[in-house]
Every structure is written in structure tokens, then in C-alpha cells.
UniProtKB/TrEMBL annotation:
GO terms for biological process: recognition of pollen. Residues 491-779 form the Protein kinase domain. Belongs to the protein kinase superfamily. Ser/Thr protein kinase family. It comes from Acer saccharum (Sugar maple). It is a single-pass type I membrane protein. This is Receptor-like serine/threonine-protein kinase. Keywords: ATP-binding, Disulfide bond, EGF-like domain, Glycoprotein, Kinase, Lectin, Membrane, Nucleotide-binding, Receptor, Serine/threonine-protein kinase, Signal, Transferase, Transmembrane, Transmembrane helix. Residues 1-23 form the signal peptide. It holds the Pfam family B_lectin.
Length: 785
């Protein structure tokens, strides 16, 4: 019996084992496997803690291909491949038979998540650490989701030099790329910034040195490490560690936070954050907005006094003045007041601070900004008054601003007289009759005066200069100058800085009391066939733009058929001179920064302005450099202000020869893709350090046909000899992988078919390394080595 029992137990154990082997599906995803949006199917990790598939957003109407925690009710998303392009039901993700991972939308558009350009994948795997990986036939890693994070990192994941996290737009409502970025910089600092404003950073770690990484280890601790030392971020977490899920996320208000979630239930609990006051993040509430956070948890956006929301449904987009006023107008002091907001502050900013006045109280600070017509606000901290110029950013009222004061100039609202008082029924008397007669006489006198002014040009000029135009502003710190003011500022227009296709530019200095401001004045030399109202409307659009990589338009003049535009002065000239006319060529890192800055500026014009602006003439001559060599795009509004045939050169096409998109030859409607093409040509010039065409090149200088730069880059890529393009520059060769990526982005941009060119949003992402750069369409039909 014992023998029989033993045999039965062995057979039962074997059956259980066989059943277990049969019931367990292989975690490997084989070639040809796919998932369809709306099917609820997913690829699970062996522990089933994580899932890869389509995540429902916007009430289930659209889907993101991504990874999420699958066992908790929240199903928290940690990575996505298409955060800015949600897919419809019926879209698919497939690991193709040739080893590519692709997302196919219902309209047939294909997004390459992994192109297999280097090595084809043989299988995929959703791992238990939340990393989705692709491996080759030798099980070597060829691609991983950890290599291109979105807003979250997980234990066992690191953020290496140059890698970034981008916040979502609206938490768990809108997962598209938001306004904030966490970057592990090459100097060893971990930096949070409002990157759309080209912000240098509002929080950073006290670390420096090469080859540093942000590490999130398996024990749930985050630290910054290199070969020599460790800088800890996380201080303590609940134990035992394995009983919790862990994640670290940059939220939609720009704070980097670490959370834990018990595997048996509950909610996500924060265990660490980069800073306590959420209003520390720059531009949380946009331009002229004020961030309020009394509890250091919630964030509320309001407008500063005297301003109203740009979008009443979303105050965080920023605000604009209710009444626009020029404080430099004579006798303007009685038309505004200075409001004091208690326990509030405009943080110190070298780009926004005009000057500091020491040892003053509230009244002294008020007087300081009232005496300075270029100052719109101030912060009073202790006894230091920091005067601020426009635009006003980052106003905050929170726990960290107790005892501080924000002072803001606010125009006084004027109301119309109560006409009803004149129409009340009163007993007739001679005095009332005389009063009414006086009113009628005054009205008639006013009308006669207006007629006299209308038919008297000298009177027109006097009235415009004295009362209206000199002080009339139509945008954010945007004013109308008189011709006499600009003539005096430029000393009779005697110092020309240069000439463009639309007119000459002159240097000038505006003098007001003890303040001098350098300006550049552009005289448009062609007739403007638009009405004054049309011209002013388009100037308002241009005047409200604000970005670090755009030259700031300060004002304009329309007088005696003359049209002049007044810009901030850029002391280091044009990018063209800097790149091509210097004895010593600029460094590689500086050129990379300039290219990224210009890309971000164009992205702002195309996608982030309230009204889209297409430049139509992107070239190095239209990029200017300030005193810090920050690259700024100029003349970005001329395509709106001028008539269609006024931005043409001797090529009889809009734009400049060599930078012109080929679709203009076919006379098709202009889109943002014309700027993308021009940027692509200029990007190749910047990274290669030479003009796109050089007719004076001597044949003996090179064995290659390198007369036309884009063609030469293409031929070098095809032959596998791209390093020849920069063989003269050891600094570039030492960073060749980045050069190669940027060159490929340039080739994407100059595709003859505008449909195949990327948007500037994708261009920025590819340049920053957050989006993989596939082989450019120009090379698809070539035998690329």
C-alpha cells in the first residue's frame, strides 16, 4: 500500500507540474504579435504588476500606447509612446515580423516606436521592473522604454546625462507634453525648468562633475552618483520595501515627487519632493498670473491686480492688462495707482529686475517705481525694493512669501458719466435751461474743434504727439512712438546696422530721465497696403509674443506714410557673422545650444502663440545674438505685416535663395512646413560650421562634391562617411553621436515633400533626444551603409 500511495503521489505531482507548465503563458512577445486599441488586451509582466498596451484617455475616446501599474485600481500610467498623438479605437501596436515595434493609427499613419535600424528585434518582454524591452537573437538588449522616459522613472531606472522627464499638461486629464522639464545636465546638476520659456531653472541640485546620473535603486532610494561620490535625495521610505510599488514623477505644476503605494491597497503616498512650496516653479500661472498656495499642496492661479485671464476657462495660461497704459507719458501719474499685495513676491530674476533700492519702506518702494516709468512692479523684501520690468512672471503668494510685499502699477478705471441724470424729468426752470444750453454749446465747440484738427495737419501732429500716440500702447509694454522721437533716438538715422529685404535697421538710444535703452529701429521701405486698423491688429499679435529665443518688439511708428518697428538691441550681431565671418569659429556646445534655442523659438511661433505666426524667411541673417550670445529669431512678424509680394527677394520668391521650401515653386499655400525646411538648411550650416553653398570652394580642398552642403551630407551618410563633413573639427568628432543625430534631423527637415517633414514640436524632441530619430525619408531608397 505504501508503494502504491507513493506512486500515486508521484503521478499527481507530475500531473500538477504538467498542468502548470501548460497553463503558464510565455512572457516573451513573439514577432508578429499585436494589440488593438479598444480590445482590453495587454502584454503583462511575469508578476502581472505591469502591463503594456493601450491606455484609455479622454473618457475612453482615445488611447495611449504605454505602460501602467496593472494591479492597483488607479492603473497609474508610467510611460507612453504617443503622449502628444493619442490613437483612436482600432489602432494597433505590433512587433512586426522584421523586428520593428510600430504604432499604426486608423488613418494609416505609422509611428515607429523602434525602427530596427541598427539590429532587428527577435522578441519583446514586459519585465517585472516596468521596463518594456526588445532583444535580438542572442537576447542582447536592442531597445527599452527606460531609455526614453516620459514623466516618470521607476526603481532600477536611471536618468543619465542629457536625459529628461517632461510633465503632463494636466495631470491625469491630459498626458500630452506639459510646460516643465527635469534634466540631468552634463555639468552634473539635476535641474527643473519651465523649458517653454527657455528658463535656466528654478530648482537644481548642488552637484557638479562629469558622468553623473540620477539613480532610482531597487530599495526605493534616489540619488545622484558618479565614480567619486553620492548625493542623496530620498531620506526615508516605508518598509518592507518589497510591499510597496514605487515611482518618481514630475507633476503638471513642475514639482518632482516620489510616491509609494502599498500592494494590498490604499492610495499613492508622497515620501519626497524637490521643494515644499509648489509656487516656486516658474510660470506655473503664466505671464501676469499669480500662484497661490496657502497649504503648500494645492495651487490656484489668479491674475495680478489690473489684469484679466487670457482664457477664462484656464487661468494658468496667463493674463493680460485690463487697461493698457504707457507710464512714460507726461502727467500719467494721476491715471494709475500702486496696489500692494501682502505676503506676496516676484522672485528675484536677473532678466526681470531693473534695479534695487535699499533701505526703504512701502512708501519708499512705491515712490521708486512711480519715479521709473519703465518699472511696472516691485518686490519689497525686508527693506530692499526690487523693481521689475515687463513682462511680469512668477508672482506668488504662499507660505514661503510671508512678510513680503508685491507692489503693482494699476491703471485707474474711468467710467462714463451717468447720462440718466440728464434725462430725468425735472421742473423746468431757467437754470436748467442754461445748463442744458451750456452742455450743447460745449458739444458743438468740441465737434468744431475736432473738425479743425481734422483739416489741420499741424494740429493733428500736435494732438497725436501730446495726448494720443506717444502714450498709446496696444500690447504688453508695447508702445507707439512718434517719428520725431525715433529720429532723435537714432540721431537722424545715421547709424545703419544692416539691411534686410524689407528695409534698413538703425541703432538708437532712448533717453528718459536717468535711463538709457539701446534700440534697433527698422524702417520698412515699401508701401503698406493694409489699413491702419489691419496693421495695428497684426502688431498686437506680434507684440504679445514672449520667448527667450525671439527678439522683442518694443513698439512702432506710423506717421507720414512711414512705418517703423522698434526692437530691443542685440549687441552681438547676426548668427551669420558669428558663424561665418569670425577668425575663430564658435565652439560646438555653443552652436548646439543656439540650434536648440532657435528650434524652441520656432515651436513657440507655430504652436504656442495665441495666433500662429509663420516666419517665411528663416536664415542666419535673421537670427540675432544678445550680450550672452543667446540666439533670437528676428523679423518673425513681417510675413503678417507686409503684403504677399513684399517679402520676396531677387529670386521672385518669398524667403531667401537656398532656404526656400520647394513647394513655393508650385505656388501652393504656405504652411509652417516652409519654416521647417529653412530651419533644416540652417541647422546643417550650424552643426557643420559652413554655409549651405560655397561657390568659391577650390576643388583641391576636397575629394568629394561638397559644393552644396545638404547634398554632401546625404552622400556622406549613404557612403557611411559622415565624419568627413566635420573632419576638420575635433570637438565635434568627440561628440559624433550627437552630431549624427542632429544631421539626421536636418535631413528630415529638408525633405522635398512638406507632409514628410516633422513639425517643430517633433524637431525639438529629436534634437533634445527625447524622440528617437529614424532614417530620414531622403535616405529610404538609398543603400545606406
Amino acid at each position: 500500500m505504501d508503494v502504491v500511495r507513493t506512486l500515486l503521489l508521484c503521478v499527481l505531482a507530475l500531473l500538477v507540474n504538467l498542468y502548470g507548465l501548460h497553463g503558464q503563458t510565455s512572457p516573451n512577445i513573439s514577432l508578429g504579435s499585436s494589440i488593438t486599441a479598444g480590445s482590453n488586451a495587454s502584454w503583462l509582466s511575469p508578476s502581472a504588476d505591469y502591463a503594456f498596451g493601450f491606455y484609455r484617455v479622454f473618457g475612453g475616446r482615445l488611447y495611449l500606447a504605454g505602460i501602467w501599474f496593472d494591479k492597483i485600481p488607479a492603473k497609474t500610467l508610467v510611460w507612453t509612446a504617443n503622449r502628444d498623438s493619442p490613437a483612436e479605437a482600432g489602432s494597433t501596436v505590433q512587433l512586426t515580423d522584421d523586428g520593428h515595434l510600430i504604432l499604426t493609427y486608423t488613418n494609416g499613419t505609422v509611428q515607429q516606436i523602434y525602427s530596427g535600424a541598427t539590429v532587428a528585434a527577435s522578441f519583446g518582454l514586459m519585465q517585472d521592473d516596468g521596463n518594456f524591452v526588445l532583444r535580438d537573437t542572442n537576447s542582447a538588449l536592442v531597445w527599452q522604454s527606460f531609455g526614453s522616459p516620459t514623466d516618470t522613472i521607476l526603481p532600477e531606472q536611471a536618468l543619465a546625462n542629457g536625459q529628461t522627464l517632461y510633465s503632463n499638461s494636466k495631470g491625469t486629464i491630459d498626458y500630452s507634453t506639459g510646460d516643465f522639464r527635469l534634466e540631468m545636465q552634463s555639468d552634473g546638476k539635476l535641474v527643473l525648468s519651465a523649458y517653454r520659456f527657455a528658463d535656466p531653472g528654478y530648482w537644481l541640485t548642488d552637484t557638479q562633475g562629469e558622468n553623473r546620473s540620477l539613480v532610482f535603486n531597487h530599495s526605493g532610494f534616489m540619488y545622484i552618483v558618479n565614480s567619486s561620490n553620492v548625493y542623496s535625495l530620498t531620506e526615508n521610505i516605508p518598509t518592507p520595501v518589497e510591499d510597496y510599488y514605487h515611482r518618481a514623477t514630475i507633476n503638471d505644476h513642475g514639482t518632482f515627487e516620489q510616491f509609494v503605494h502599498h500592494k494590498n491597497g490604499g492610495n499613492w503616498t508622497r515620501v519626497w519632493r524637490s521643494f515644499d512650496d509648489p509656487c516656486i516653479a516658474n510660470s506655473v500661472c503664466g505671464i501676469y498670473g499669480m500662484c497661490t498656495s496657502p497649504d503648500n499642496e494645492t495651487v490656484t492661479c489668479n491674475c495680478i491686480p489690473g489684469h484679466t485671464p487670457l482664457d477664462p476657462d484656464n487661468v494658468s495660461k496667463g493674463c493680460h492688462p485690463e487697461t493698457v497704459m504707457n507710464y512714460c507719458l507726461e502727467n500719467s501719474g494721476g491715471n494709475y495707482t500702486v496696489e500692494v499685495v501682502e505676503d506676496a513676491d516676484f522672485p528675484s530674476d536677473l532678466t526681470a529686475d531693473l534695479a534695487r533700492v535699499e533701505h526703504v519702506d512701502v512708501e519708499g518702494c512705491k515712490k521708486a517705481i512711480m519715479d521709473d516709468c519703465y518699472s511696472l512692479a516691485a518686490s519689497l523684501v525686508d527693506s530692499t525694493c526690487r523693481k521689475k520690468r515687463t513682462p511680469l512672471l512668477n508672482a506668488r503668494k504662499s507660505a514661503s512669501t510671508k512678510g513680503m510685499k508685491a507692489l503693482i502699477k494699476v491703471p485707474i478705471k474711468t467710467s462714463n458719466p451717468d447720462i440718466r441724470k440728464l434725462t430725468r424729468k425735472k421742473k423746468f426752470n431757467s437754470r436748467a435751461f442754461l445748463e442744458i444750453g451750456s452742455i450743447i454749446s460745449a458739444i458743438l465747440a468740441f465737434l468744431l474743434g475736432v473738425a479743425a484738427i481734422y483739416y489741420n495737419p499741424a494740429a493733428q501732429r500736435f494732438i497725436k504727439r501730446k495726448y494720443f500716440l506717444t502714450g498709446n500702447t496696444i500690447g504688453i509694454n508695447f508702445r507707439e512712438f512718434t517719428f520725431q522721437e525715433l529720429q532723435e533716438a537714432t540721431n537722424g538715422f545715421n547709424k545703419a546696422l544692416g539691411r534686410g529685404s524689407s528695409g534698413k535697421v538703425y541703432k538708437g538710444i532712448l533717453v528718459l530721465k536717468d535711463t538709457q535703452i539701446e534700440i534697433a529701429v527698422k524702417k520698412l521701405e515699401k508701401d503698406i497696403e493694409k489699413s491702419r486698423e489691419e496693421f495695428m491688429t497684426e502688431l498686437k499679435i506680434i507684440g504679445r509674443t514672449h520667448h527667450k529665443n525671439l527678439v522683442r518688439l518694443l513698439g512702432f511708428c506710423i506717421e507720414n506714410n512711414q512705418h517703423l518697428l522698434v526692437y530691443e538691441f542685440m549687441s552681438n550681431g547676426t548668427l551669420s557673422d558669428f558663424l561665418f565671418n569670425k577668425v575663430e569659429s564658435p565652439g560646438w556646445v555653443q552652436r548646439v545650444d543656439m540650434a536648440l534655442g532657435m528650434a524652441r523659438g520656432l515651436l513657440y511661433l507655430h504652436d504656442e502663440c495665441h495666433t500662429q505666426i509663420i516666419h517665411c524667411d528663416i536664415k542666419p541673417e535673421n537670427v540675432l545674438l544678445d550680450r550672452n550670445y543667446t540666439a533670437k529669431i528676428s523679423d518673425f512678424g513681417l510675413s503678417k505685416l507686409l503684403n504677399k509680394d513684399q517679402t520676396r527677394t531677387n529670386t521672385n520668391l518669398r524667403g531667401t535663395a537656398g532656404y526656400i521650401a520647394p513647394e513655393w515653386l508650385r505656388n501652393v499655400p504656405v504652411t509652417t512646413k516652409v519654416d521647417v525646411y529653412s530651419f533644416g538648411v540652417m541647422l546643417l550650416e550650424i552643426i557643420c560650421g559652413r554655409r549651405h553653398i560655397e561657390l568659391n570652394r577650390v576643388e583641391e580642398e576636397s575629394e568629394e562634391d561638397d559644393l552644396f552642403l545638404p547634398d554632401w551630407v546625404v552622400s556622406c551618410v549613404i557612403s557611411g562617411k559622415l565624419e568627413m563633413v566635420v573632419s576638420h573639427d575635433p570637438e565635434v568628432l568627440s561628440d559624433f553621436e550627437r552630431f549624427e543625430r542632429m544631421a539626421m534631423v536636418g535631413l528630415w527637415c529638408i525633405n522635398p515633400d512638406p507632409i514628410l517633414r516633422p513639425s517643430m514640436n517633433k524637431v525639438v524632441q529629436m534634437l533634445e533626444g527625447t524622440l528617437e530619430v529614424e532614417i530620414a525619408p531622403l535616405l529610404h531608397d538609398q543603400n545606406v551603409k
